[in-house]
Amino acid sequence: MATYCLTVARLQLALGQGVRRLHVSAAFNAKAKVSMSRFEPSNFVNYEKLNENVNIVRKRLNRPLTLSEKIVYGHLDDPVGQDIARGRTYLRLRPDRVAMQDATAQMAMLQFISSGLPQVAVPSTIHCDHLIEAQIGGAKDLARAKDINAEVYNFLASAGAKYGVGFWKPGSGIIHQIILENYAYPGVLLIGTDSHTPNGGGLGSICIGVGGADAVDVMAGIPWELKCPNVIGVKLTGKLSGWTSPKDVILKVAGILTVKGGTGAIVEYHGPGVDSISCTGMATICNMGAEIGATTSVFPYNHRMKTYLEKTGRGDIAALADDYADLLVPDAGCEYDSMVEINLDELKPHINGPFTPDLAHPMADIGATAVKNGWPLQVKVGLIGSCTNSSYEDMGRSASVAKQALDKGLKCKAAFTITPGSEQIRATIERDGYSKILGDVGGMVLANACGPCIGQWDRRDVKKGEKNTIVTSYNRNFTARNDANPATHAFVASPEIVTALAIAGTLDFNPEVDYLTAANGEKFKLKPPSADELPKLDFDPGQDTYQHPPAEGGSKLRVDVSPTSTRLQLLEPFDKWAGGDLEDLQILIKVSGQRIIWGFAAGPWLKFRAVNIENDGVNKIKNQLTGEYGGVPDVARHYKANGLSWVVVGDDNYGEGSSREHAALEPRHLGGRCIIVKSFARIHETNLKKQGMLPLTFQNPADYDKIRPDDKISIKGLATFAPGKPLSTVVKHSDGTKDEFQLNHTFNETQIEWFQAGSALNRMKELQ
């Protein structure tokens, strides 16, 4: 049953839609041009075009629009002719800009180079944040990463200069924090090659995580395809207070919707409770929306966003957004596909985990639940920061908790790490004393990078396989995610809760009711944290870590790719579809769980992580030609050398977190033709299609159990491959028996052309 938006000012309702649109038109004519960012003074915010497209679509659909619909449909390539049906049609969109993190940017830029185009068509940036391993501390870890990854950084810097892409050097900070500080603004449509790109929704942006090949399309000036999203409304009432934080909103939502509940949808927050959340708090909520499978999440424009824009040097954008504020909120009476309601007055601090971000527990319950399930109560490490929770407010609230402990003579019982989200945050919290407080309580400040959040953590305090508990303010906590130890029980909470647990050293400490013992034996309770939303002084920008593309263009520049590199290689086109069915594909691996990352270009810490159902081993499979066991890429390479194409069989939500292009490019390069699973994570499914692979799903998920690790599989029906028409498979077992069943797909006509051409890039070249 449809529910309705209630988040439009009473004055707007009284004036009516017509009057509001007249005001917008007048404002458009009166306003001067405003640059999208200080780094791109000749690229301008274009609310006029956004408004024009929104009016066209609203008239066509004859109904009010949600905020996400306004921004998405406002960027249609053809708003007059585009078929629009939520959850069904594919939209052709014109995003405003592209952002790439360094692990994915390698493949994206290699593909862009192959396109033969001289410059990117939209403002684009590269951010060096994924390849810095946390080991002994920020400065030394950064220096080590610069040395180990020199060839990658040189390639990205030189490619950026040649093709007009801004380059944020290692040490700049995490891509999503840099975007929030510099590039996100209300109404912008941004795509980023990382699954937590939705962080920008905290500034009223539609920011969507994609694969590198999608980024190449946009950088090449080609319309970008997105399946028309459904819209889930989350109505917030009441007000945040006490120990309850913005993080608790998304922890609660994740518990309600689960890791698959947002699939194919944009989550749109609205209601009177929104105004009690800071801009960076809204970004936290949108960031972790990736964990419920959402396409992205977004908040409506309000005074908290305006203040943040002004404090980050973008007052001109804030003024422009004020003039067009009704364009940047949902229409009165708009319909959501489903609705979740949360009363912030009643919301309590939460902690989610272990092993999945949707296992939600109120802090009051976690101790008893842990004892019941045999989860270790001792907290070994508390980790705060990351792209999800590293704002000035986050660091201030954590420091507020730490200062109370220090005043009572206490330090952390657990190890404690702090990851600043950006150089600007690092410099500002150092200036304002937060870093000293967090250090004095026992914390170690890591580099401005992703670090342990993505597994870039050289952890040495426990042995592999040793059962232990860590608590983080990160977003993901899947098995072995942070430290490659499958026995680590990782829990996700707000930074202030993580800080309190690191001080107490035990998971069953609830700071709302429990007492700590001071150095003098006195019992005391921690007071709820308090901190400024933004610094009283201006932000300290810290070191200048941005490389502008040369003003004169890069036509005379050379891209730096070492001929002896084991991580970078200029791409050769993949072979076209031969015209027949795929016969007798060897099963490479039958995967248990969601994870599969092939990462030869990303570095030694981001390699293959999938679990083989045959032996529960990671990166250990049987070579069916030799009978010996080896690593997944090694066996795949051997099959390719012997002319044997292969297939992977996977579980639910396969590819979760694998926005990296390597996860699709490398299997294609090594002879893979097909991936058959129960369900896909959105970005990974698209990546596979772009590389000419066949991502297919079991029509009956129970057919997964019929497949054995040594089977051979044939894919039938490719001669009549068409949208909505299932393919069939014949599974040949080693004992001579067979199974046959149907396989579904989500290919549209354009994507089928990618498959037939061998890849989307091949098809792009055919059309040039």
TrEMBL record:
* Pathway listed: Carbohydrate metabolism; tricarboxylic acid cycle; isocitrate from oxaloacetate: step 2/2
Q: Which domain of life is it from?
A: Eukaryota
Q: List UniProt keywords, sorted A-Z.
A: 4Fe-4S, Iron, Iron-sulfur, Lyase, Metal-binding, Mitochondrion, Transit peptide, Tricarboxylic acid cycle
In the UniProt record, which is one GO cellular component term?
Answer: mitochondrion
Q: Which PROSITE patterns match?
A: ACONITASE_1, ACONITASE_2
Q: Where in the cell is it found?
A: Mitochondrion
GO MF entry, a single one: metal ion binding
Keyword Oxidoreductase attached: no
Domain Aconitase A/isopropylmalate dehydratase small subunit swivel stretches: 607-700
Cofactor annotation comment? Binds 1 [4Fe-4S] cluster per subunit.
Please give the SUPFAM superfamilies that the UniProt record associates with this protein.
Aconitase iron-sulfur domain, LeuD/IlvD-like
Say yes or no: keyword Cell wall biogenesis/degradation present: no
A Gene Ontology annotation in the biological process aspect, one of them, is: tricarboxylic acid cycle
Please tell me where this protein is predominantly located: mitochondrion
- Looking at the record, the residues that make up the Aconitase/3-isopropylmalate dehydratase large subunit alpha/beta/alpha domain are 69-505
What does this protein's UniProt record list under function?
Answer: Catalyzes the isomerization of citrate to isocitrate via cis-aconitate.
The similarity comment for this entry is: Belongs to the aconitase/IPM isomerase family.
* Name the record gives this protein: Aconitate hydratase, mitochondrial
The organism is: Oncorhynchus mykiss (Rainbow trout)
